[in-house]
Design goal:
This protein is α/β, with parallel strands linked by helices and 152 residues long. Helices cover 19% and strands 12% of the residues. The mean pLDDT is 92.
Length: 152
């Protein structure tokens, strides 16, 4: 079998109807478009959102809001999660916990704008965390457990 010899089965493809080729063809004169009107003209169609001349719904509702293209989005991790991953053996408590170590342990899958530590849950291990941002309560809990937190 050769790729250049491949063909469709007979009758698998129907040729396009050639309209406007005389009245004997059955689709001549108006070419299946009926008589006059907007739909009979060439190049003229109503938009899919056209609502019979009334004000379209997209124009009736007010527009509001703003998406800041320069906004920073941080990967967040909770203290309870850090403790859970230390207990599971995914994170080594003796080494610094950084965004790279979390990626290596497959706890997070992308860096985004940096790492933010939040205080949900409790931490008992003394850990050294290197992050871009953290909450005050998270910092207090880490220091209370005997660890430290520093800026990346």
């Amino acid at each position: 079998m050769k790729l250049n010899a491949l063909m469709d089965n007979l009758g698998a493809r129907q040729s396009a109807a050639r309209v406007g080729r005389g009245i004997g063809s059955g689709s001549g004169k108006t070419a299946g478009r009926g008589h006059k009107g907007q739909k009979a003209r060439s190049g003229s169609r109503k938009q899919a959102t056209f609502q019979g001349g009334q004000m379209p719904i997209l124009r009736r509702f007010p527009k509001f809001g703003f998406n800041n293209p320069f906004a920073k989005e941080y990967v967040t991790i909770n203290l309870g999660d850090i403790e859970k991953f230390i207990a599971a053996g995914k994170i080594d408590a003796l080494k610094d916990i950084t965004i790279d170590s979390l990626m290596a342990a497959k706890i997070i899958n992308r860096k985004m704008s940096g790492l933010k530590v939040l205080a949900k849950g409790e931490i008992k291990s003394a850990v050294n965390v290197v992050a871009d941002k953290w909450s005050k309560s998270a910092e207090a809990a880490i220091v209370k457990a005997g660890g430290s937190i520093k800026n990346n």
